[in-house]
């Protein structure tokens, strides 16, 4: 049976217990700091290193690799295309099979690699070590409307439910003689009979689900309570302050330097 | 002793937006506290609309045109919001799947959803959840994901989520129609238990044998009008029942054809026990 | 030639976790109900008959053709399967178009398909709704539309998956009529169902599955008289049969009609006996 | 009973329930496209239907949430492309509100507009993260050809994106349109217009 979508890995380290807001702040820092404090590549690499160490510590490093998969392919093609064709390419670096790679292009590709890895690893830290429901509850406590919190958490659960219908719809339509294999046009034609029932029934269900929510006080006015209310630890608070101040200082430094 | 009326409906009329026909037409009745009322009638007769009117979805969710008065547990539905009504009356729908809020990862948290919305104190919340888990036989599933339950279990969870809010009345709109016999039986048992706890029950149902077995009174609805509201024996003994698209329990059908009646009451049998008594040769 | 031959079939979704074990039976035209608790393997068996799944061990032959040698889409001309949830298949905005989808897929001309679709809608008594949007209709009407969309393909074998669930009285009566009509037209009708009253009234033969094994296979009357075996498989006989048992009748009845005629003849006998005394 | 204002920010409960369903439709569309081995993504059908049903704001929110969910569960970089999804939701919502999507031809035109807007929004993101590439083999081949022939990076990147977007977005809008016209009336009514309560005494 399909469960809620999530990349969360339960390893019970300190990272899993950390307040999600601290991790969000860390992401913000790792994206902005390389731009605020130059040189970009050095700061970026530092963050990549920190993220890697944290991921190792959180026992989730192995789970990062599949996340990098798709980006990795593009990054390789970037190295090739920019190394070969970038317009400001002047200084040849090396030649393979008659193809000349240039220093400028390779350096640019290197910068892009750092940028992508920096962002990717920081986010990986969040998504691999945080239960999505904890992240949402944490945001709701800090002022995100609970109704939007609902949208996020229900999407995480509804999507796998909808995906699990895919098999029975395929079966039902193939039973009525729908061909799902063959040339492009045949396959394209099969798309509407397959997606149609999903759209219709899921939209139709919205009415009853909306009513079911209403009768359980979803639109009730007044303060909500939480069944599980986790308080921020002292460490969470300290880290939040440290990261916040760090961000502030670097912004100030940047402004003063300019 | 005067029995409290938990539901009082007076001359209720209702029309859905963008339609011309009245979905409910001049309906008046009242229900005593703790009673089990069955509602029968054919498709689109107005059964679901009446249920929605009792909990306030009509007119607050649907709008449209509304007349008359519905008072539940002393509160007039028209002057109250759906959320406020939730403390007095709850509803369970046909499809168990759509009633899962989808916002919670465990059965335990799912039951808390309504209580959190009402801003309930955590100690009270935990007390109530434990109570309904036990009442509806869901204790063993409390840490499961709601979507991993069977249809019957999901439907009991939907009931649990409503009962945790401690309403005086619970309305069930064909809660077993999409379940297999095992799931239906689970739900009927659960509803029976609620009835014993003193909850007033209003249940729309197609399985007449079950209604005959459990209900104190049965309401017959046709084309938005209330045709009859009486004991199951009297209502199912009506000779014109088929005209309203309702087939009585199979025992009653046989007895009608064979003209086997209870001599003292002059009524046909509606349950297997009554049938056994009257049919023994 | 048998319409369906199931020969020593076993099936597992994952390695060695068999949901069906060594099932064999043959089916001719007529009506067969496959019953059993949840998880007994009913749905898997039906998917095997439709060619949506292929047996791990053994073979399934449909009109002599091994399902391993063909596809579900190709089998659509011979075997129609009505799924339990109509919302898994309905996607057109007009009832008629929806019912014509299957016939057009299996190569019928538009005129032919329309003719078949209209005939199918007549059978399910929804002719007057042919121009409406299926999703504007009730769930029980949608279930009848999904039945019509299979009937319009005019297959020799029609399989129903829980046709009476989510049906009101009117819809249930329609389904019973449809089954009788198909049988009298010389088709093979197979159903998987939990509704024993439906089985008792409409089906000649009953196959009982329990935990993936074939528990009973015989006439409805024989199967339902074995109350001990049924209760071991967590199944209850129809209400009428239960009443017969409670009244300690020596014979078993499956439908109200047969009960009525039995009771009447006995009442008469008793009356004449009483009169004699 | 007039139509609701296009920019209404009131999210009724049906609308809040619609958004996860829309995101789910996006996911399922993508899955079916993969199962049928189609050379298209078809992963924004839900966003577009939500826009048609409930306007640009709801469409934009559905788009944003789609990418947030995708980022949380599949590929963190897709957080950034929430901007593209938001733009798609807005464009379709505005055009639907103005009544542009009434025939198949108009759906194709809307598809083209969506493709252009989506490419315009994605291009700067592509340049920032990927030096202008998209990861699509055909698009990237065109990109390499362009920059090798001294066409500016921005333009090359735009070409890279748009050759992929045109077939995909046109197909997506057309499919969404075909399904939208099939939706039952009572469903469309639930999402459009604010009803008022009338007394019957």
Summarize the structure.
Chain B is of the alpha/beta class.
Protein described:
The complex is a heterotetramer of chains A (258), B (281), C (277) and D (201). Chain A is mainly α and 258 residues long. Helices cover 71% and strands 3% of the residues of chain A. Chain A has helices at residues 14-17, 20-36, 40-57, 61-85, 103-129, 132-141, 146-164, 166-175, 184-189, 191-214, 234-257, and strands at 92-96, 99-102. Chain A is flat and about 65 Å long. The model of chain A has no long low-confidence stretch (mean pLDDT 90). Chain B has helices at 47-55, 57-60, 82-85, 107-117, 122-135, 151-163, 181-196, 208-214, 232-237, 250-258, 272-279; strands at 5-15, 24-32, 36-40, 64-72, 75-76, 89-92, 169-173, 200-204, 217-222, 225-230. In chain B, helix 4 (107-117) crosses helix 5, helix 5 crosses helix 6 and helix 6 (151-163) packs parallel to helix 7 (181-196). The model of chain B has no long low-confidence stretch (mean pLDDT 94). Helices cover 41% and strands 22% of the residues of chain C. Chain C is built from eleven helices and ten strands. In chain C, the strands form two sheets. Chain C has a six-stranded mixed sheet with strand order 6-7-8-3-9-10, sandwiched between helices. In chain C, strand 7 (157-161), helix 6 (169-184) and strand 8 (188-192) form a beta-alpha-beta unit. In chain C, helix 3 packs across helix 4. Chain C is globular, with a radius of gyration of 20 Å. Chain D has 201 residues and is mainly α. Chain D has a domain at 13-120 and 169-200: Arp2/3 complex 21 kDa subunit ARPC3, CATH 1.10.1760. Chain D starts with 12 loop residues before the first helix and ends with a strand. The model of chain D has no long low-confidence stretch (mean pLDDT 91). Chains in contact: A-B, A-C, A-D, B-C, B-D, C-D. Chains A and B meet through helix 7 and helix 10 of A and helix 3, helix 4, helix 5 and helix 6 of B. Strand 4 of chain B pairs parallel with strand 1 of chain D, so a sheet runs across the interface.
